[in-house]
Amino acid sequence: MTLSLEKDIAAVEKIAAVPTILEAVSEITGLGFVCVARVTANSWHTCAVLDKLGFGLKVGDALDVTTTLCEEVRDTNAAIIIDSVRDSAQYCDHKTPRIYGFQSYFSIPLHRPSGEYFGTLCGLDPNKAELTQSSTTKTLSLFAELISRQLAAESAMRTTQTALSDEKETSKLREQFIAMLGHDIRTPLSTISNGTEILKQQAPPAIAPLLAIMQRSVQRIAALIDDVTDFTRGRMGGGISLNIRHEKSVAEFLYQAVEELRGVYPGHEIVSDIPADISLLCDGQRMVQLLSNLLKNAIVHGNQAAPVYVNAKIANGIFELAITNSGTAIPEDIQAKLFKPFWKSTTANVSEGLGLGLFIASEIAVSHGGTLEVASSATATTFTYRCRTADFVERRIEARPF
Fold first, then answer.
1. Residue 24's domain spans which residues?
2. Is 46 exposed, middle or buried (0-12, 13-18, 19+ CB in 10 A)?
């Protein structure tokens, strides 16, 4: 069985209505054998069969196309309908009825989506039948048209599925390439960073500002690589990687993020209120990344003349970290897009990153079993991260029955 024949049989088998159509045709016409046949210049094969006569043909079986009337239907693209071979001047002496022993017969062309001839909806019986009545021929033609239309629909679906499969494969390869590229870039970037540090220690004071700019650029590139790597790992099924520990001094990690952003944006005021006794089951460096991403977003998109506030607190076993900036309200339709990857506001500075910061912050929050939400009004916008404290989690674990 050729690959093209297998595809055509599969296409017919996928049309759920075909068995019902064959049964309906048999009931309406009284014919004991009805089938959908694929017909080419050199072959005749069954794609669907209803055989109440014991004719012996099954799906995929072949007949010599030169012994069939379907060959004539293919050549003329016109239906053949016979009530009685004995009473037909055209077919009473034809070889085909003698070979297959039928008196009543019909064969109606089926077409591919392109309009090309596919085969026929055909049926036969050793007894005479009233097939040429107008109502019967219209019904048979309607069934044939329905099968042709369903063949077109199946073809369109296969094309769409193939395109989708190709796109998924391309996307996977692209993400693998990005992941490898990010990994390979780290080595030369580390060399540049180390070289810059050495130059800062030995170079004359006159070039110190240039070296500081170079160092910030290295840090910025490293941050972009981290964002892309995290995003790609998440898309490839790895998720955001975590090194969960019982961190009893989370405040130190949070202050690290605040101080880093103060260095990057020295002209922007950051007001922080972070208690020293925050204890969480978390990945400390990921908490730095989460706060850094949220804080940078607040600085870039908020009122440049107003401070950004970082507030942390613990209440009833819940740790809450809120980052607030002043500025215009974020519309609700925009809020729904904020945590999508690569989404950037039309008013955003194109040099301010890839649009992955909030997405990665959200993924870090989810990976920790927490939540990240946004609330915005005419006076302020606040991103709030919440999760269970370590004490709360440990009490729950200790309270579980063994």
1. 3-160
2. buried
Are residues 285 and 173 located together in one domain of the fold?
Answer: no
The pair of structure tokens assigned to 258 is: 């605040």
Query: Based on the domain organization, do 269 and 354 belong to the same domain?
Result: yes
User: Nearest to residue 83, comparing CAs of 45, 128, 42?
Assistant: 128
Asked if residues 21 and 9 have their Cβ atoms less than 8 Å apart, the reply is no
**What is the pTM for the complete model shown?**
0.49
Residue 372's Cβ-side half-sphere holds a number of Cα atoms within 13 Å equal to 24
* Pair (151, 179) in one structural domain: no
Tell me, yes or no, whether 240 lies in a domain. Answer: no
Strand partners, 326: 380
Each of the 402 residues of the chain gets a pLDDT tens digit; together they read 565 888 889 889 888 889 999 999 999 999 999 999 999 989 999 999 999 999 899 999 999 999 999 989 999 999 999 999 999 999 999 999 999 999 999 999 999 877 889 999 999 999 999 999 999 999 999 999 989 888 877 656 666 666 666 666 655 655 555 555 555 666 677 777 777 878 878 778 888 787 777 777 776 677 667 766 666 655 555 557 788 999 999 999 999 999 988 888 888 999 999 999 899 999 998 899 899 999 999 998 889 899 999 999 999 889 999 999 998 899 888 888 888 876 666 555 444 555 678 888 898 998 898 999 999 998 899 999 999 988 766 655 555 554
Q: Is 347 part of a structural domain of the chain?
A: yes
Residue 322 included in any domain: yes
- The tokens describing 86, both together, are 């004995």
